[in-house]
Amino acid sequence: MIKKAGTINKLEMKNAQGGNNSIFAEPILTGDEFTNSGRLYNKMTFPPKASIGYHVHKGESETYFILKGTGMYSDNGKEVEVHAGDIAYCAPGEGHGLENIGDDDLIMIALIIFDKR
Fold first, then answer.
1. Taking CA 36 as the corner, what is the angle to CA 85 and CA 43, rounded to the nearest 5 degrees?
2. Is 26 exposed, middle or buried (0-12, 13-18, 19+ CB in 10 A)?
3. Which string of DSSP letters, residue by residue, matches 71-97?
4. Domain limits, the chain
5. Can you tell me the distance from the alpha carbon of 55 to that of 57, in angstroms, rounded to the nearest whole number?
6. This prediction's pTM
7. 3-class DSSP state for residue 18?
8. Which of 25, 58, 79, 114 fits a 20 to 30 Å CA distance from 33?
């Protein structure tokens, strides 16, 4: 299967997890494409000052791969600045959030996989 550029629906997420403003998701995989291994694999765009609020993952992990921009990542409440090329991992039972603190869009890939241990 090939998903051609420009054919993926961009979804607006207002105040995601209690965050500020809107962020935008472009699903890379959906539904059965996860083969019961996860539930989210998206390209995410955060306009300046937009954020996803702090939240905890239960029974799953989430990884962010920052492609572009500058963000403030909350790693279990510890604030860490992140840049293009950085990877942030949130293990099952841990929490995180992310805010775009730059003047340009922050773009990342987000992956949520189930904890099958």
1. 30
2. middle
3. EEEEETTEEEEEETT-EEEE-TT-EEE
4. 9-68+83-93
5. 7
6. 0.95
7. helix
8. 58
Alpha-carbon distance values, 54 to 73, 76, 77 (Å): 9, 8, 8
pLDDT at 64: 98
Residue ranges of the chain with pLDDT lower than 50?
A: none
SS3 3: coil
SS3 of residue 32 by DSSP:
helix
Distances in whole angstroms, Cα of residue 57 to Cα of each of 7, 25, 30, 37, 91: 30, 19, 19, 15, 7
Q: Which CATH superfamily is domain 9-68+83-93 in?
A: Jelly Rolls (2.60.120.10)
Q: Output the pLDDT for position 117.
A: 84
- pLDDT one-digit tens code per residue, 14-31: 999 999 999 999 999 999
